[in-house]
Design brief:
single chain; Rossmann fold; 204 residues; 56% helix; alpha/beta; binds thymidine-5'-diphosphate; 8 helices; globular; 13% strand
Length: 204
Amino acid sequence: MKGKFITFEGIDGAGKSSHVEWLAEWLRARGIVVQVTREPGGTELGEKLRALLLNEPMHLETETLLMFAARREHLARLIEPALARGEWVVCDRFSDATYAYQGGGRGLDRNKFLTLEHWVQERLQPDLTLLFDLPLDIARERIVLANRVLDKFEQERVDFHERVRQAYLERAHGNPSRIQVINADNSIDNIRKKLEKILLVNCL
Ligand code: TYD
């Protein structure tokens, strides 16, 4: 038996992280064993790489290679063993984030992305990706209201984030059965109702 792999994506400020733990609890209430994790990170080494990736300026290809290095470790140590045990994995960001941030945001050559994706994941893709989408100005407002220290990506200019958003939407357009776009400019209750519906139709 193989478990299901569900990922959460969206621009900074889309509010996806607050739904990750809620979804895991919703699944656990249905008797499913769930691992909650995140990228970059998810393993001891991955979390060390995350600290570098979110704070240190570096060459675009170094950034991309480190994202995929953390991902390789994450797949080998956590994601693949959990799925093989029949557990579900709910992951806050995965390769679609590399496509959107390093590809869309920073302009990484698409073939380099595809080469690394194939090398690191072979054919593995999430069973379901929940893409939280909303206009940039609302996302920026949420980040400002949170009033915390911003990481390297959050400090990028509006046009960077607009390119990230468009790359995510383009990726969703190309993968309509895997990626479900959720209007994140909505109440928490409405978003949860939508998530329940998507899960019931696609995964349960
Ligand atoms: P994020 O998931 O938003 O965490 P938090 O909610 O704690 O801020 O932060 C991760 C950042 O890393 C986010 O800005 C997107 C970026 N990122 C990439 O640029 N490429 C990737 O492949 C991944 C996984 C994340």
